[in-house]
Fold this protein.
Amino acid sequence: MSTPVTLAIDTARERLQLALVLSNGAIETEIVDIAKGHAEIIFGAMGTLLDRCGLTYQSLNRIAVTTGPGSFTGLRIGLSTARGLGLALDIPVIGIPSLLALSLSRQGPSELIVDAKRGEAYRQSFSAPGKPRNKADLVDLKQILQIASRTTPDDPMIDIALMAAFASRARPKEFPPDPTYIRAADAKPQLGFGVARK
């Protein structure tokens, strides 16, 4: 039985990462280091990857995308691209939380500590790669590094090939493509200009 062709998308950090899991199980990737401007290049990069593999969008059976935490703008670009393609092609879209994707690079049980800036960190424990023990939370960076007897947080860059392989086997209903926001949004609603309703 052949494996469905899966396209994986990661725009959570300063990199555009794409991967294809082909029907024979081989994995091809396209990675571009870019801090901003994911939206301007994402479709061109997908086209390059598909062409290289002799495929078209119609060859895809499922799409996976990182859901965060990560760059707010980057995540929105990845999620909207994946959802739009899924809708147009009528195929499942699978959302993979960024910390779960990072855990796929670890061996055995692990605790991930990723710098969230502003003196904070995202933390989550895994009993095995891809198997969370608890929900991700936001903690004090210095304090959690001391508790964990470490001096630096984990590298936040996801291995897109491992994520694509995981997504090719995942059950879509267990991984909805919804953004994973651990920190509250910076933007606050402007109430001073509201119009009174009768």
Summary: The mean pLDDT is 91. Helices lie at 38-52, 72-89, 98-103, 141-147, 160-169.
